[in-house]
Amino acid sequence: MKTYDYIIVLKKRSFATVDLVSQIMLIIAAIAFVAAYFTGFIIGTISIVMAAAVLAWLIYCIWQNKRGIAPFYRFGLLIGAIGWYSLEDGIWVAWIYLLAAMLEKQVKFPEEIAFDENEIVKNSFPKKRYSWSELNNVVLKDGLLTIDFKNNQLIQKELESGTTETLEQEFNAYAKLNLEKTNYAN
Question: Looking at residue 139, which CATH number applies to its domain?
Answer without folding.
Answer: 2.30.29.30
